[in-house]
Write a structure and sequence with these properties.
This protein is α/β, with parallel strands linked by helices and about 575 residues long. Helix 5 crosses helix 14 (about 405-415).
Length: about 575
Amino acid sequence: MMPNKPVKSRIAILGGGPSALFVFKRFVEAADTDLEMHIFEAKKLLGAGMPYSYEGANKEHVTNVSDNEIPEIVTSIETWIETLSTESLAKFNIEKENFNEYKVLPRLLFGQYLSAQFTLLLEKAKSNGLTTIVHLGSRVIDIVDNPDTGKVLIETAEKESLEFDKVIICTGHKWPVKYEGVVAGYFDSPYPPAKLELKLNHAIAIKGSSLTAVDALRTLARNNGTFDKDKNGKVRFLASKDSPDFKLVMHSRNGLLPAVRFHLEDPLVSNDSLLSQEEIQKNKTENNGFLSLDFVFEKEFKDLFKDKDPKFYESIKELSMEDFVDSMMSQRESAEPFSLFKKEYEEAEKSIKRKESIYWKEVLAILSFAMNYPAKYLSAEDMQRLQKVLMPLISVVIAFVPQSSCEELLALHAAGKLEIVAVGETGETEAEKIKGGITYHYKGENGADQSDYYQTFVDCVGQPHLDYEDFPFKGLFENEAISPARIKFESSEKARLAMNGGNKNIEKSGDDYYLKVPGITINDNFQIVDNNGKANKRIYIMAVPYIGGYNPDYSGLDFCEQASSNIVETILDI
């Protein structure tokens, strides 16, 4: 009698974008043939996800990273480019002989690259004997966990119910709709960008000044004018004759434009950049069970300058985090935004040509990445400092706007078609449900209340951190498999006073006080955690909208690379 064939462990990856790509890559590399992989993707294409498909990009949108800054997948972009026809590259104004690993790519072309990499991984999985079943056009609508059987049930919109041993949620970006489609001229996000291909002969309000805002600017500008170059090669913008009153008005808290992409000396943020578990544990032991934000700032920022830039280190070694941020922000805020933007563009051009980093900005990016994983160990007091003090500087400095985008923003401003307004922390928008558009309420430069009406409004603050209540898989609420993310206060007295003062994000549990932060609770291995603090060994999540409370700065493909490693190593017990 033949022995029964051993049952393979069934693993589901929900989503087929960049996050799923990196997770699947890890499983393929492990070459474990005792697994049966299932990939569920709502669209008909693997790899591109939202940012690098028509859901998130038009032809005019470019990446803010180059080949040398992208974690290795199967082949490099430079190698892949060689496989494409001259005709297909011409659509993106790319010539093979002029391409190198330092070039940024059109986002749609980069999406094609990611899709091609997924195909190569599927081929490699097949040759390795790893069973993989891809479910295209299959949208997962619910997840039900069964601790008694140790299985997880996946339900799809196509009325399939499939059982798995492990589930990894890689569902990507989510843009909640609040007023779009209800209030005329109101857009909750600039995605998909095709919806902004509009002729608009009036001023348009843009909320935010991030890369998301740059996406909207590039699309709106092209539909209301043209870009060309003068005899000196400088980009200029010419408004359409039928859109003479077209104008773009960006609104940001401090009236600051993002920083410009420069040459990165160490483009791939790695494990070497992260605090070790031993360092974290030692500091927690010395700090009443909390990781000190000041300790992280010293270790992951200031200390990195000792060898690389001793002069800069001497200038900052005595500064607290607040003092450093104040110094950097005051320099930016005191300068006229577009003059500073032009200066930084020229500085970045030199950095790229000379292949020399602007080191303090590079280290700030390292600090941002390093903060992601241990943030859950901060006290609530330090988490508030991180949110209010450090993250505003990080969000401005490490946006890394590509050179071509800078040239277009400067051209729009020179043509009198782009300006930026500082609206402070109290600035808010009021949707005009009857006449359409919005009214922007904020304090003007003289401190007086100001209200500006705009017929068209685009919210460009980027991917919002969504709350626990927004989590889409309601089956995990039923047995309390997930819990709302929160951070404990070190000082109960300060927390009590803040709560009594009206802070609605503070809650009391027993004798302790907690700060409510966005999303659900996860551990270092990206496992969901229940209300009793117990990690679930069956369900993992790296869908960024729902883990923002514990991962305040998820850094693109670097985040995918690191998170996928944590998840797959935990599942395979490597």
